[in-house]
Design a protein that fits this description.
The structure is a single chain. By secondary structure, this protein is an alpha+beta fold. It has one domain: Transcriptional coactivator/pterin dehydratase (Gyrase A, domain 2). About 40% of the residues lie in helices and about 25% in strands. A 4-stranded antiparallel beta sheet has the order 1-2-4-3, with helices on one face. The longest helix has 18 residues. The protein is globular, with a radius of gyration of 13 Å.
């Protein structure tokens, strides 16, 4: 199991992300797409990555908007794998 990162480690890693923040102890990002098809396609592609990592985010999709929250339930917070999934999400844009 991945270990929960410290606050200092999280802050350092956040400096290297594009628009991710921490909200209620989870990595958080809100994305806007051109339309529902583009947003849903993104969610579907990210689902495949999440499954490979065995690390599943909490997310919602409403028309052209996707909200993603990532944390590790097993570790009780944010881990390196959370940042790996966040980077994968950014790479799918």
């Amino acid at each position: 199991m991945a270990e929960k990162l410290t606050g200092t480690e999280i802050e350092e890693r956040l400096r290297h992300t594009d628009g991710w923040t921490v909200v209620e102890g989870k990595l958080h990002k809100e994305l806007t797409f051109a339309d529902f098809n583009e947003a849903f396609g993104f969610v579907a592609r990210l689902a495949l990555v999440a499954e490979k990592l065995d690390h599943h985010p909490d997310w919602s999709n409403s028309w052209n908007r996707v909200v993603i929250d990532i944390s590790s339930h097993a570790a009780g917070g944010i881990t390196a794998t959370c940042f790996e999934l966040a980077a994968a999400a950014d790479g799918l844009r």
